[in-house]
Amino acid sequence: MSATVDTTRERQRLDWARLATGQPGLSLQRASTDAGFRSYWRTAGTGGPSLVVMDSPPALEDVRPWLRMHGLLERGGVRVPRVLARDADAGFLLLEDLGRRTALQAVDDASADAMFEAAFDQLLRLQAIAIPDGLPAYDEALLARELRLFDEWYLGRHLGLELDRGALEVLDRVYRRLIDAALAQPRVLVHRDYMLRNLMPLADGAVAVLDFQDAVQGPVAYDPMSLFKDAFISWPQARIDQWLARYHARASAAGLPLPALDRFRHDIDWIGVQRHLKVIGIFARLHHRDGKPKYLADVPRFFGYLDGVLPRYPELAPLASLIDRLVRPRLAMAGA
Fold first, then answer.
1. Cβ distance 273 to 317 under 8 Å?
2. Alpha carbon distances (Å) from 123 to 67, 203, 301
3. Are residues 116 and 74 both part of a single domain?
4. Which CATH number characterizes residue 281's domain?
5. Pair (155, 297) in one structural domain
6. Tens of pLDDT along 176-222?
7. Are 255 and 173 within 8 A, CB to CB?
8. Are 287 and 169 in the same domain?
9. Residues 6 or more apart from 221 whose CB is under 8 A from it?
10. Predicted confidence (pLDDT) per residue in 213-261, tens digit
11. Are residues 175 and 154 in the same domain?
């Protein structure tokens, strides 16, 4: 985007915010980054409570899918940011200001149990929503496309590995098993990135849910697994086991389609492997394609998650062997 276009959009955003709020002296300050093509701006200079402007340039990211999912979640009782004004054609929304700290920034060892209970409250409401007609599915094509991010962007682009036929066949077999396991799970509405960075702690002890626009119908274990095996913070396995059992008890009592606890642990592990490989690939892509290298620092977290799961399942041993044989030597040499 050129400087001229940036300046034009900046003026449009400010003019719209002043009109929507009725505050001609209002100014805007950047509120957050890393939201795709969307940007968020906090109001200032009004003398009252701050609000947030979402700017979603129509040519780059249509705001209507966000609004549709927002409406679905809000009707289902999920706490999402309140929309105070909108111009979908221009790509502007005026939202309530939920604060400056995400749950990831606010959580600590002492508050984690209460934070996870609040996260479960919203997740159970989200998963109970009837899946609307036409909602995309976490189908075989999407699962496979996500898995291929690992070998394309991390193994190939980042580590510079040229996989031979044997290695590719290993990945194909493991991917097939992971996809089959995901497709066998009961299906619910899936946020796809349900983790502390996308939750906002509120004064009443609840949390609000953000970044929900890519929700699909998919495996019931996906979102709780994303919460337990967060991309940006790690928890002791014993604590995760307690939270998993607590979520399972609450979800079962709420009538969600969960299997028995032991089977659910298996489903959490297997869909976790799929997500861990995907995220490693996404973080490499963010570095090489989008010029965002900071995410690579969290890649070892995901290999740690894999190390905790792969040895428990003989069917996944070929993946563990491939990582040991091809990936770890490159990591040791390059510090990647």
1. no
2. 19, 19, 24
3. no
4. 3.90.1200.10
5. yes
6. 999 999 999 999 999 999 999 999 999 999 999 999 999 999 999 99
7. no
8. yes
9. 185, 264, 267, 268, 271
10. 999 999 999 999 999 999 999 999 999 999 999 999 999 999 999 999 9
11. yes
